[in-house]
Amino acid sequence: MSSPLTNLLGLTRSELEAFVAGMDEKPFRARQLMKWLYKRGVSDFSQMTDLAKSFRERLSQVAEVRTPEVVLSQASADGTRKWLLKMDGPASGASQAIEMVFIPEPGRGTLCISSQIGCAMDCTFCSTAQQGFNRNLTVEEIVGQVWLARRELGDLDTDSLTNAQRPTPNTRLITNVVFMGMGEPLANYRNVVPAAEILMDDLGFDISRRRVTVSTSGLVPQMMRLAEETNCALAVSLHAPNDRLRDEIVPINRKHPIAELLDACWHYVQRQNARSITFEYVMLDGVNDQPEHARELVKLLHGKPAKVNLIPFNPFPDTRYKRSKPEAIEHFRDYLNKHGVIATTRRTRGDDIDAACGQLVGRVQNRTTVRLGSKLVSVTVQS
Fold first, then answer.
1. Rounded CA separation 338/4 (Å)
2. How far from the centroid of its chain's Cα atoms is residue 271's Cα?
3. Which one from 99, 140, 197, 280 is the annotated catalytic residue?
4. Is 357 among the residues known to form the active site?
């Protein structure tokens, strides 16, 4: 059941300025509020001591700072953290839950957040997609994940991390945020874009635009719109070098085939003056990891502003796929690099707690969307 109070975590700077203006306050009050919320992580209005007492009292009557509720927290042997978060927001029906993951590395810490409860894209290698779809997350539910993670990690005993797991001293733990958790971010365009704006706002989380990454399976119209309306990094789930194979692995390809997808990618680079597009490519044994696939991929991406991130497949119950052999992944990567396509292999992290890429499942009740792969349907997009 939704709260009658306005959750301030769902408001961009301009929206927060309008909110305080509606309380007959000046715009600088919004900037003060953002500093308390995002720089100091304070949620109790009574502690925001440079605000007039009368204003704080009125705020407590009309506003709140509310984050998702932690149901379960897990820590991997490699330092990865995963949280199961309860999401009983509007129209959820039964109890819903999503997952969020933090991956610490030397010099950086990446938070992987969700944008939907479940996913309707039905990518066949992804455990999340097999759970079905319930609804889009709201702006405050998306931003609330990052706010919550910062609070949770502030309680983290960093002395328990090895040097290999520890970010560089004197830097914040969360340096990168990626929309690569549960859901297709661009199918929730209306909420993802303002959430990204708050992440990048210098009065918000103040994360560099190159360190906020939106990942998509290939919703081309939304990619074109994104190029005009925001300025963050873009990652594309490619996973196959030809339409026949990608139709099977990533069903949205039947609506937006590779040529159309790549045109949107290069348009994004041009409009946003981006360095490159990252193409995610999960390595499936005997499916998309053969030498001919590497050759086809080179033909697609050679000479283009592209980086390929090879992802060893992470198994889940009842999947028909197997992870490519290490030597096959190595040969695939080396062929791409030798022929002018930058390629790296993502190190599997958090697989002992099912926190690796493609393993997030959460808890999805009241599924409302048929699976895309069984019958190609129009994807409902909040724009």
1. 59
2. 22
3. 99
4. yes
- The length of the chain in residues reads 383
**pLDDT tens track for 27-50:** 999 999 999 999 999 999 999 999
Q: Is 197 a catalytic residue?
A: no
Residue 240's CB is within 10 A of a number of other CB atoms, namely: 23
Token representation of residue 294: 């590497």
- Rounded to whole angstroms, what are the CA distances from 312 to 285, 321, 337, 357? 9, 11, 17, 9
Q: Which of 20, 49, 64 is the last residue of a domain?
A: 64
Q: How many domains does the chain have?
A: 2
Instruction: Indicate whether 285 and 203 sit together in one domain.
Output: yes
Q: Which of these is catalytic: 123, 126, 265, 357?
A: 357
- 290: CB partners within 8 A, 6+ apart: none
Contact, 214 vs 186, CB < 8 A?
Answer: yes
pTM for the whole structure: 0.88
- Residue 26: Cβ within 10 Å count: 11
320 lies in a domain?
A: yes
What is the CB neighbour count within 10 angstroms for residue 159? 6
Q: Rounded to an integer, what distance in angstroms lies between the CA atom of residue 152 and that of residue 148?
A: 6
